[in-house]
Amino acid sequence: MLRQAQHDVLTHPNIPLKDLCFCGFLLLLGLLAGSAQAQRLAARAAGGAADESAPFTIVALGDMPYTLPADYGRFENLIRGINAARPSFSVHVGDIKSGSTPCTAEVFRKVYDYFQTFAQPLIYTPGDNEWTDCGRPKAGGYDPEERLAAVRQLFFPDHNSFGQRKLSLTSQALNPAFAAYVENNRWALHNVAFATIHLVGSNNNFVPNDAKGQNREFYERMRANVAWLDEVFAEAAAQHRLGVVLFTQADMFNPAKDAKDADGFTEILAALRQHVVAFGRPVLLVNGDSHRLLLDKPFFNPAFPLRCLQSFTRLQVPGEADVQAVRITITPRDPALFQVQELLVPENAPLTLTHSENSTTSSQHP
Fold first, then answer.
1. How many angstroms separate the CA atoms of 240 and 225, rounded?
2. What does the mean pLDDT of the chain come to?
3. DSSP, residue by residue, 230-258
4. d(CA 280, CA 292)
5. What residues have CB less than 8 Å from 357, skipping those under 6 apart?
6. Counting Cβ atoms within 10 Å, is residue 112 exposed (0-12), middle (13-18) or buried (19+)?
7. Nearest in space to 246 (alpha carbons), one of 93, 87, 65, 85
8. Quick one: how far is CA 344 from the chain centroid?
9. Fewer CB atoms near the end CB (10 Å): N or C, the chain?
């Protein structure tokens, strides 16, 4: 699955190879349910003595449930699969519905209730479909900023995670200068720093050649996000963290998604690369938005322009039609720190095409 995804991206006509850096990666497919490692992880999740140097797992998912109400059952299957895997925590990287699904309170509440059924902590960062795209007629023609306020009120009432077991979070909103940004949260586990940062698709809500003054929200949120990155990496450096994991919705490395004459991610990507270089230890960015599993190293090393910045890795989770998740194993004693696996729920596997359907598909896409 990933081999095909890698091939598709490398040959995508809208992504010049000179603008991206792809290096080798480690991907472990399948599950560890029967392995000794999984048994140790399950024992610790059940309340065994914590070993700060022992491997632990987390789960990342996003862009789901997408097609409603059809995907609700598939989302329930995935939640059961994640609960059975017993990760230390999970993170949903946004888009809890499609961009054409109405942005109603009922749709939001349905997913909010699903989030509470995770056995372990679940952390969430919003996607563009929850607010930026709500102005579309099919999405209800809402005021996007009003929907953002509704998302913040419902999904971020306090500084705790979702799930039956809560995780205490440190919110950027504790800083009076950024009191509105309750969705930006950080936490740490086994000396690894984790944080969400509110960056969304649809060019991060940036409107090129803005004649109506619509970019006020963008500029204010970008000021908060840059300050948040500063805080996350300052804490990681001060505490000598082994690595940093960031979670966001936007796929910031796909030029096909950018506006033609402006990019809503230029400033934050420059700040991120600067922090990665200064930090000098592994940094993993997890995003959704493009719906296809991908693991790459998209930053060039500023000191060696033809080389990848090896300490930075980007993981893009599957979504939309692929209601599956990704398991990340973090091994404190391993210099690479991160290993990535698909967490597959057999009930959600796509149906096999018939011979005639396969032939039709092949003829349409040579």
1. 22
2. 84
3. HHHHHHHHHTT-SEEEEEES--TT-GGGS
4. 29
5. none
6. middle
7. 93
8. 17
9. C
What is the average per-residue pLDDT within 311-320?
97
| Distance of alpha carbon 146 from alpha carbon 152, whole angstroms | 10
* Per-residue pLDDT reduced to its tens digit, 194-223: 999 999 999 999 988 776 778 999 999 999
Burial string for 224-248 (b: 16+ CB within 10 Å, else e) reads bbbbbbebbbebbbeeebbbbbbbb
- Mean pLDDT value across residues 1-12: 30
CA-to-CA distance for 337 and 339, rounded, in angstroms?
7
pTM: 0.85
Top-confidence residue, 184 or 47: 184
What are the pLDDT digits (tens) for 86-113? 999 999 999 999 999 999 999 999 999 9
Annotated domain spans of the chain: 2-46+55-345
Going by pLDDT thresholds of 50, 70 and 90, the confidence category of residue 226 is very high
- Residue pair 76/113 in contact (Cβ under 8 Å)? The answer is no
Sign of the four-CA dihedral 223, 229, 232, 233: negative
Task: Look at the alpha carbons of 156, 216, 222, 23 in this order and tell me if their dihedral is positive or negative.
Answer: positive
Query: What does the DSSP assignment read for 52-114?
Result: TTS-EEEEEE-S-S-STTTTHHHHHHHHHHHHHH--S-EEE-S-SS-TTS---HHHHHHHHHH
Give yes or no for a contact between 186 and 194, defined as CB atoms under 8 angstroms apart.
yes
- Residue 96 and residue 103: Cα distance in Å, rounded? 10
Q: Distance between CA 334 and CA 101 in Å, rounded?
A: 43
CA angle 16, 322, 105 (to 5 degrees): 105
- Please give the full DSSP string across 289-347, using - where no structure is assigned: SS-S-EEE--PEETTEEEEE-TTEEEEE---TT---EEEEEE-TTSTT-EEEEEE--GG
Using CA atoms, how far apart are residues 179 and 25, in angstroms rounded to an integer?
Answer: 39
2-46+55-345 fold: Purple Acid Phosphatase; chain A, domain 2 (3.60.21)
Place of tokens 């399950």: 42
351 confidence band (pLDDT: 50, 70, 90): low
Q: Which of 300, 170, 191 is nearest to 245 (CA)?
A: 191
